[in-house]
Amino acid sequence: MSQLNISLPPALKNWIDTKVAEGRYSSASDYVRDLLRRDQDAATNEIEWLRGLIAESRAATLIDREPEEVMDDIMKQYPAPRD
């Protein structure tokens, strides 16, 4: 397995230590790996969502609206997830 060293401010290090102490993770590395996997999953889901919108738009008929209006509607229908 590859190794990566990172520097963290004390507050983030304490956060990680707390998560490990809670028992859900066996180590700081385990916690960081889980965060990275979840970030990968979220990015994959976002890409698939965008691909779906593109496919939907390609299949749709032309509309008589400004692109900004269409984007506003999309953003209202699919708000960004909050962490």
General description of the model:
The chain is an all-alpha fold. It is 66% helix and 0% strand. The chain is built from three helices and no strands. The protein has helices at residues 10-21, 28-59, 67-77. The protein starts with 9 loop residues before the first helix and ends in a 6-residue tail after the last helix. The model has no long low-confidence stretch (mean pLDDT 90).
Quick overview of this protein structure:
By secondary structure, the protein is mostly helical. Helix content is 66%, strand content 0%. It is built from 3 helices and no strands.
Topology:
Elements: H1 10-21, H2 28-59, H3 67-77
Major sheet: size, sense and barrel closure? none
Terminal Cα span: 29 Å
Quaternary organisation: single chain
What is the number of helices? 3
Quantity of strands, as a count: 0
Structural class determined from secondary elements: mainly alpha
Beta fraction: under 5%
* Rg over CA atoms: 20 Å
Residue share in helices? Answer: 55-70%
What's the helix-strand series?
Answer: HHH
Coarse morphology: elongated
Mean pLDDT: 90
Low-confidence stretches: none
